[in-house]
């Protein structure tokens, strides 16, 4: 999926773009003609052997696209049948129907046959409620028959805002959308329900593809590069000193993985800060990663007099809730960057708002379960998308929030948000979160601003996973950074 415009739109924002284009020099029928022609071309390219095109037409502009699609496919020699609703008179969709008049059968009359391709032009992103019962039954018949589906703009039954089904929903094999992606295209499960995504230029000027809602796909236009800047005069401290706190002896492995990942990701030097009882175990495993014994808050405060300590990772395998809070406070009061992950998040489950008072750079990296412990009210609000939840959490704690998953959302307190949607499923392995925490720490130690640091780290984490072996372990992932 090669996308030139990385900005994401809600359906409402995209509707405003369409209206602005029509209020300018473009005509509604002209946009509809180009959209319908593009979908017809996609159908012919990807289903060259189709025996019958079943065009499901809604009453609005999505249905208008369907009438144009029907005309183009019929002219190409494909048998075409339309099911659905006639358009409202006086609309662009009515123009489209008049350009290819004919019978539109009732949705209840459709029965799948071998060789059919369903082209779903019912509602697209224009519906954010459950589909009517007759469409739900059609969706079930098509699914039972295994009939392929090509969706126009968005599969009917899927929220273009949240990416969640509103009820019964088509599972498309391919979705063709226009000008730019909607948030529902990339948030899960919407991304899976859309199948292969194709974004088509239908002539909307790029100057109109802007809005006041700064949500983008995570890519180099956000963070620049995943590698730290290095020149001939660089030295290890110029690339940043990262510290990873270790837990007790029995759980010290998580911190080692974070530390090794941080070193691989470009920190100039990395130190594991171990409690005295874990020093010998860490020494047996660490080589290029250094070690320091830090047993209590006083020892940490004394060490922080060294202003070369740039960033800290706190939480992987740490296990001591009260000490987490002490260490976090000391690091943040010293103005150093802090990544909170795993046990570092759990320790703040009931006091997460306390972090908002610190202005030092902070990045929180919760997975779904940790997010629920920290922000249960946000997860209980079904009206919120994953983007909404991440943004509100970021504002609440005055920190960057990396809301992890196959559709990781990185959000800043100022409202910026990026969605990373190219991480492979093999990241679902023990320790991959510890690795990400170390990469984020390295990116902060390099001196990046926290939002860009988190975006770069998430991108590097995903790229390393793509290059790692199938059935990888966290150690394989570190080696692939």
Automatic annotation (TrEMBL):
Ranges where the YjeF N-terminal domain occurs: 14-210
Keywords: ATP-binding, Isomerase, Lyase, Metal-binding, Multifunctional enzyme, NAD, NADP, Nucleotide-binding, Potassium
Pfam families with a match to the protein in the record: Carb_kinase, YjeF_N
UniProt-listed Gene3D superfamilies: 3.40.1190.20, YjeF N-terminal domain (3.40.50.10260)
PROSITE patterns, alphabetized: YJEF_C_2, YJEF_C_3, YJEF_N
GO process terms (BP): metabolite repair; nicotinamide nucleotide metabolic process
Residues reported in the UniProt entry to bind AMP: 404-408, 433
Catalytic function, reaction form: (6S)-NADHX + ADP = AMP + phosphate + NADH + H(+); (6R)-NADPHX = (6S)-NADPHX; (6S)-NADPHX + ADP = AMP + phosphate + NADPH + H(+); (6R)-NADHX = (6S)-NADHX
Highest taxon, organism lineage: Bacteria
Gene Ontology MF: a single term: ADP-dependent NAD(P)H-hydrate dehydratase activity
Cofactor list: K(+); Mg(2+)
Sites where the protein binds (6S)-NADPHX: 61-65, 124-130, 153, 254, 317, 367, 434
Limits of the YjeF C-terminal domain: 219-481
Annotated positions binding K(+): 62, 120, 156
Keyword Cytoplasm assigned: no
InterPro entries on file: Carbohydrate_kinase_pred_CS, CARKD, Nnr, Ribokinase-like, YjeF_N_dom, YjeF_N_dom_sf
Record EC number: 4.2.1.136, 5.1.99.6
Cofactor: binding details: Binds 1 potassium ion per subunit.
Family the entry assigns: In the N-terminal section; belongs to the NnrE/AIBP family. In the C-terminal section; belongs to the NnrD/CARKD family.
Function, in words: Bifunctional enzyme that catalyzes the epimerization of the S- and R-forms of NAD(P)HX and the dehydration of the S-form of NAD(P)HX at the expense of ADP, which is converted to AMP. This allows the repair of both epimers of NAD(P)HX, a damaged form of NAD(P)H that is a result of enzymatic or heat-dependent hydration.
SUBUNIT field: Homotetramer.
Protein known as: Bifunctional NAD(P)H-hydrate repair enzyme
Organism: Pseudohoeflea suaedae
Lineage: Bacteria, Pseudomonadati, Pseudomonadota, Alphaproteobacteria, Hyphomicrobiales
Encoding gene, per UniProt annotation: nnrE
């Amino acid at each position: 999926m090669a996308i030139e415009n990385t900005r994401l739109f809600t359906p409402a924002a995209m509707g405003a773009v369409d209206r602005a284009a029509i209020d300018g020099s473009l005509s509604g029928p002209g946009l509809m003609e180009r959209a319908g022609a593009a979908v017809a071309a996609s159908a012919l390219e990807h289903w060259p052997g189709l025996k019958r095109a079943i065009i499901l037409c809604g009453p609005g502009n999505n249905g208008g696209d369907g009438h144009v699609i029907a005309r183009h496919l019929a002219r190409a020699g494909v048998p075409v049948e339309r099911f659905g609703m006639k358009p409202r008179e006086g609309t662009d969709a009515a123009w489209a129907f008049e350009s290819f008049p004919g019978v539109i059968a009732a949705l209840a009359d459709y029965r799948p046959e071998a060789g059919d391709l369903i082209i779903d032009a019912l509602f697209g992103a224009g519906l954010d409620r459950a589909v009517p019962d007759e469409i739900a039954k059609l969706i079930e018949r098509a699914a039972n028959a295994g009939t392929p589906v090509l969706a126009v703009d968005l599969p009917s039954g899927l929220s273009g805002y949240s990416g969640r089904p509103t009820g019964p929903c088509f599972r498309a094999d391919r979705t063709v959308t226009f000008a730019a992606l909607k948030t529902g295209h990339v948030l899960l499960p919407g991304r899976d329900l859309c199948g292969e995504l194709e974004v088509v230029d239908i002539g909307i000027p790029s100057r109109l593809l802007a809005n006041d809602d700064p949500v983008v796909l995570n890519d180099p236009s956000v963070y620049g590069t995943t590698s730290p800047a290095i020149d001939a005069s660089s030295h290890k401290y110029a690339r940043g000193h990262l510290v990873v706190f270790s837990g007790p002896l029995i759980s010290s492995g998580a911190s080692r993985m974070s530390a090794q990942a941080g070193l691989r990701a470009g920190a100039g030097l990395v130190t594991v800060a171990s409690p005295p009882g874990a020093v010998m175990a860490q020494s047996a495993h660490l080589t290029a990663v250094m070690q320091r014994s830090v047993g209590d808050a006083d020892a940490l405060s004394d060490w922080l007099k060294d202003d070369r300590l740039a960033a800290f990772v706190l939480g992987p395998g740490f296990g001591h809730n009260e000490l987490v809070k002490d260490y976090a406070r000391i690091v943040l009061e010293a103005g150093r960057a802090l990544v909170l992950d795993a046990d570092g998040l759990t320790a703040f489950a009931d006091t997460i708002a306390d972090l908002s008072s610190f202005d030092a750079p902070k990045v929180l990296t919760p997975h779904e379960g940790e997010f629920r412990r920290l922000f249960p009210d946000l997860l209980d609000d079904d009206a919120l998308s994953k983007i909404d939840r991440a943004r509100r959490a970021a504002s609440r704690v005055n920190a960057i929030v990396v809301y992890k998953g196959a559709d990781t959302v990185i959000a800043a307190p100022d409202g910026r948000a990026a969605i990373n949607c190219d991480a492979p499923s093999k990241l679902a392995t023990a320790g991959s979160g510890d690795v990400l925490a170390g990469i984020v720490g390295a990116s902060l130690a390099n001196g990046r601003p926290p939002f860009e640091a988190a975006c770069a780290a998430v991108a590097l984490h995903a790229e390393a996973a793509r290059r790692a072996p199938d059935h990888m372990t966290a150690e394989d992932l570190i080696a692939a950074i």
